[in-house]
Amino acid sequence: MARRPRLLPAVGTARNLLAASLQGLLAEPVRPAGDGTPPEPAHLPLVLVACSGGPDSLALAAVAAHFAHTGRCRVGAVVVDHGLQAGSAGTAEQAAAAARGLGLDPVEVRRVTVERDGMGPEAAARGARYAALDDAASRLGADAVLLGHTLDDQAEQVLLGLARGSGTRSLAGMPERRGPYLRPFLELRRADTEAICDFYGLDPWHDPTNLDPSYARSRVRGEVLPFLEDQLGPGIARALARTARILGQDADLLEQLSAEAYASLRTGGDDGAVLLPEEGLRALPAALRQRVLALAALDLGAYQPSFERLRAAESLLDRKGSAGPVQLGGKVSVHRQVRGRSVLRGEPSYGSLVLRNNGSNNGPGGKQFRRPIQE
Questions:
Q1: Which residue, 124, 173, 198, 308, shows the most beta carbons closer than 10 Å to its own?
Q2: Could you tell me which residues are beta bridge partners of residue 374?
Q3: How far apart are CA 121 and CA 99, in angstroms?
Q4: Where are the beta strands (DSSP E) in 235-351?
Q5: Terminal Cα distance for the chain, rounded
Q6: Would you call 359 exposed, middle or buried from its count of C-beta atoms within 10 A (0-12, 13-18, 19+)?
Q7: Where are the beta strands (DSSP E) in the chain?
Q8: What string of pLDDT tens digits covers the 375 residues of the chain?
């Protein structure tokens, strides 16, 4: 009798990580023949893999297929063709064929149009990709969508956030879960996913843009992280990922507290304005005060305001100099309500910051700006 190949340790680790990520969703493992029958496939939860055909997503597809073969869930795949490179359609079809070869079903290829709309190429492609994944998950009734980001991707994300001078949420990197999106491989190295592909005999596609120095992420991947590991030791990537996990917990708490503070302070004014009492804002710690101002701006349809714009809005509370307005982006402005001018009909509103969307097509009831999706 032929001996079964020994399971690669990285495969076992990846299966454990995926099982933990899907906890509460997976059906019980199928028992050996004679002790029970597998559940009907139609009654199993459906999990979709966002598969580009690269090592990370292809390894994720192979590991997820194990749970389909053991009757714990159904696993399909969505391949998004951004149409940004020559031959992208053929690459997408190869990725779909690899997913089908692993036994995944359904497998779809979605071609998208990447519209810049004032965004950088990476952000625009990311927005188009998530829109396609959202649509596929909704239409197919998926319970979860799996993303193949690894510990290396997380470390790169933290370094990019540091270079931008970002806040806690950005430095927290990519969350393990957000809505239906799950990232089970954030504790795996990129070398592990490549080894998993070798174990399953898969031939992944390597995106040439990953080596293109015109992209900041590519420079971090190919030059900055290797330099840091050479100078400071090989544990830098894990240390950065650990930092993201710690800051993620802090960011979750700060966002919860700021949402509660915003709900307690917010008053709706005429013409869709948002009023925030100065006294209540001053009583908040700076970390919460800036987040409350950002929430009000987002509520009115702005992008996430920059730290500099939030500080300018915060300076209105000093009651020195101008009463505003301060532009927060997306045609949303904030000013300090001066004495003798009301915002609410029949009710004095002196002592409030007033945020308003001044665009005819933006804000509540019009075109909505979306907060950029963090990848």
A1: 173
A2: none
A3: 27
A4: 267-268, 274-277, 326-329, 332-336
A5: 47
A6: middle
A7: 46-50, 74-81, 107-111, 144-146, 177-178, 181-182, 267-268, 274-277, 326-329, 332-336, 352-357
A8: 455 568 899 999 999 999 999 999 998 776 545 544 555 566 899 999 999 999 999 999 999 999 999 999 999 999 998 877 888 889 999 999 999 999 999 999 999 888 866 667 777 888 889 999 999 999 999 999 999 999 999 999 999 999 988 889 889 999 999 999 999 999 999 999 999 999 999 999 998 888 888 888 899 999 999 999 999 988 999 999 999 999 999 999 999 999 999 999 999 876 789 999 999 999 999 999 999 999 999 999 888 888 999 999 999 998 877 777 899 887 899 998 876 555 555 455 568 999 999 874 444 433 333 333 344
For residue 53 the two structure tokens come to 């055909």
Distance CA 358, CA 360 (A): 7
Strand partners, 77: 49, 107
Whether the CB-CB separation of 80 and 30 falls below 8 Å is answered with no
Q: For the chain, percent helix, then strand, then coil, each to nearest 5?
A: 45, 15, 40
Helix residue spans in 26-87 (DSSP H)? 55-69
Q: Rounded to an integer, what distance in angstroms lies between the CA atom of residue 178 and that of residue 155?
A: 19
Q: Which amino acid is at 365?
A: G
Using CB atoms within 10 Å of the CB of residue 116, give its burial: 0 to 12 exposed, 13 to 18 middle, 19+ buried. Answer: exposed
Q: Which residues pair with 268 in a beta bridge?
A: 274
